[in-house]
């Protein structure tokens, strides 16, 4: 991972995702580190990432990191599980600033939480197909059994606002049935959108299954990383807007969604041409 040596501790953190989902990660960073400044980029023109190839996601991730670096960020958080699965290992070698993804923190928490060694992971086709959660968790504890299940309909359901709806319940019951048959005791919400379905998923899995939200764990990992590098923002440090939002398309739709899930209203979202970077 790049050192970020010489970076300004009061500079913002760059956070990116394929669209709005990564706001669940930004929201956790805002909660846990209220003094930090954030530049968020949502790739709304090219979403979804979950059904695209590794090569394409790597190209997109490089472009976005180049853009965020023009905003003088001190570190990057890849808030998207699919981009973390496909691009993190490569981009952390290529860029000279600290880059973290959402997978390691979530995997570590799940391995600590399980009692019976059977962990379920739900995510996009890309994340589940990459096998990355299984790889990371089995590196930590080789006897862990990981059962992955892609849930492609969850992202559109969340984006349509159907968080508490009988249609969502029905689809979730079908997806989760397979995981229940394996008697998992821990379930990783391995996609940015899924924490917004937490109450439905928790109810369907039952009280004995621990739900792991990688967004929450990633914010903790980020806090530790910034502290260890002397990169935590000073109270009241930095200049300009505290939170900046950029997208590659449909800025107004993004603003409305962001306002509905973030603690404060989002005043402005700027649209940029990401292909220029
Ligand atoms: N952000 C993506 C993820 O966490 C979900 C949406 C998409 O497929 O782009 O994997």
- The strand line-up of the biggest sheet is 4-3-1-2-9-10
Distance between the termini: 22 Å
Q: Can you count the beta strands?
A: 10
Average the pLDDT over all residues and give the rounded result: 95
Portion of residues in beta strands equals 15-25%
Q: Which runs of at least 5 residues are low in confidence (pLDDT < 50)?
A: none
What is the number of independent domains? Answer: 2
| Overall morphology | globular
CATH class of the largest domain: Alpha Beta
Radius of gyration: 18 Å
Number of helical runs? Answer: 11
What are the distinct ligands in this entry? D-glutamic acid
CATH architecture level-2 label of the largest domain: 3-Layer(aba) Sandwich
If you consult CATH, what is the topology of the largest domain?
Rossmann fold
Tell me the series of helices and strands, N- to C-terminal.
Answer: EHEHEHEHEHHEHHEHEHEHE
């Amino acid at each position: 991972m790049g050192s970020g040596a010489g970076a300004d501790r009061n500079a913002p953190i760059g956070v990116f995702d394929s669209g709005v989902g990564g706001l669940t990660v930004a929201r956790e960073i805002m909660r846990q580190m209220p003094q930090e400044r954030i530049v968020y980029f949502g790739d709304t023109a090219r979403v979804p990432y979950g059904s695209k190839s590794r090569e394409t996601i790597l190209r997109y991730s490089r472009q976005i990191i180049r853009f965020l670096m023009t905003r003088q960020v001190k570190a990057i958080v890849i808030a998207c599980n699919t981009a973390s699965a496909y691009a993190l290992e490569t981009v952390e070698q290529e860029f000279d600033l600290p880059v973290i993804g959402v997978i390691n923190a979530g995997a570590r928490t799940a391995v600590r939480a399980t009692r019976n060694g059977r962990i379920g992971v739900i995510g996009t086709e890309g994340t589940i197909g990459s096998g990355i959660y299984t790889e990371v968790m089995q590196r930590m504890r080789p006897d862990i059994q990981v059962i992955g299940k892609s849930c492609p309909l969850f992202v559109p359901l969340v984006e349509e606002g159907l968080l508490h709806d009988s249609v969502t319940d029905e689809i979730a019951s079908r997806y989760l049935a397979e995981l229940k048959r394996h008697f998992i005791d821990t379930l990783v919400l391995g996609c940015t959108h899924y924490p917004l379905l937490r109450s439905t998923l928790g109810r369907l899995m039952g009280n004995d299954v621990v739900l792991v939200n990688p967004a929450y764990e990633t914010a903790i990992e980020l806090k530790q990383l910034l502290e260890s590098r002397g990169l935590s923002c000073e109270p009241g440090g930095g200049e300009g807007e505290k939170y900046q939002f950029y997208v590659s398309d449909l800025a107004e739709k993004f603003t409305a969604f962001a306002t509905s899930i973030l603690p404060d209203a989002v005043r402005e979202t700027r649209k940029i041409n990401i292909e220029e970077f």
